[in-house]
Inverse folding.
């Protein structure tokens, strides 16, 4: 009986050890991805959605839009896709707010495509994949988001059949953001990001 319990404890501790190792490696990947800028010539720049206030981008969204506008002006891609639907109480979508902001920054209307239905990263990128494919732009994209979100955004894009590179903004990631993303990536890679998005 004692031998049986000893083996049971060894198995349990072994499983716990593997879980800790898996989560630790995932945390390192999330942290490292946010420190890399993999900008390269692409078919489109996809800006991940963030909060806006009655058409005025929040500082987070503004940072993403400014970065995307800079990439566009540098000739990285001919099109910018702005994403994001409405949150509770919003009068306009994040996507439309981004469209107005970029237009005011002298980005041509013809170079801006708008996604307005996504309420999470998977939905935004899924809709963006449809937009770029229907426009005949190909699947090679640059994603603009905050550093902590870079690894998951690229992973979701890969699941959707997009050849994605990430160009993070220059904002700092908090430990809480990195831990939250580590949890999302750890689960998403096991069950798929599509299933994970249905839970969130």
């Amino acid at each position: 009986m004692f031998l049986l319990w000893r083996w049971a404890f060894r198995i349990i501790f072994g499983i716990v050890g593997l879980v800790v190792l898996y989560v630790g490696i995932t945390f390192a990947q999330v942290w490292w991805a946010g420190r890399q800028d993999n900008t390269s010539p692409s078919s489109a720049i996809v800006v991940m959605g963030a909060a806006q206030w009655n058409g005025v981008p929040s500082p987070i969204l503004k940072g993403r839009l400014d970065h995307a506008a800079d990439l566009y002006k540098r000739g990285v891609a001919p099109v910018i896709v702005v994403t994001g639907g409405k949150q509770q109480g919003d009068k306009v979508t994040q996507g439309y707010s981004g469209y107005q902001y970029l237009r005011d920054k002298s980005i041509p209307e013809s170079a801006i495509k708008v996604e307005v239905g996504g309420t999470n990263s998977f939905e935004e990128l899924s809709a963006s994949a449809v937009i770029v494919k229907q426009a005949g732009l190909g699947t090679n994209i640059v994603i603009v988001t905050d550093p902590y979100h870079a690894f998951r955004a690229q992973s979701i894009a890969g699941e959707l059949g997009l050849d994605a590179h990430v160009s993070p903004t220059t904002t700092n990631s908090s430990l809480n953001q990195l831990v939250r993303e580590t949890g999302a990536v750890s689960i998403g890679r096991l069950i798929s990001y599509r299933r994970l998005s249905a839970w969130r």
